[in-house]
Amino acid sequence: MFVPDLLKGKKVLITGGGSGLGKSMAAGFLDLGAEVVICGRRTEVLDEAASELSAKGTITTYPLDIRDADKVEAAIGAIWQDG
User: Fold this and answer.
1) CA torsion, ordered 59, 64, 68, 72, to nearest 10 deg
2) Which positions ≥6 away from 40 have C-beta within 8 Å?
3) Burial category of 47 from C-beta neighbours within 10 Å (exposed 0-12, middle 13-18, buried 19 and up)
4) What is the spatial distance between Cα 65 and Cα 3, in angstroms, rounded to a whole number?
């Protein structure tokens, strides 16, 4: 339905991206050319998802509990610091 490079040059952050709906959305954004950052509490789940999805494009992980507001702020700064 969309052109494959629709989101080329864009970065997408997905919380809960290691499984379920978050992981599915990550795959979809990768298919559209976006760079994807997935966050979640369980590092091993994030790493497995990133390994599985890495063939589709650039995906990185950021272990994070979104219930900690200070860590969320720090994560947002770090994730978008490099563009």
Assistant:
1) -20
2) 15, 16, 17, 18, 19, 22, 46, 61, 63, 64
3) middle
4) 34
How many angstroms separate the Cα of 54 from the Cα of each of 13, 38, 67, 71, 72? 15, 12, 27, 26, 24
- Read off φ and ψ for residue 5, nearest 5 degrees: -105, 25
The pTM assigned to this predicted structure is 0.89
For 13, the token pair is 């952050």
Structure letter (DSSP) for residue 3: -
Interval 33-66: pLDDT, tens: 999 999 999 999 999 999 999 999 999 999 999 8
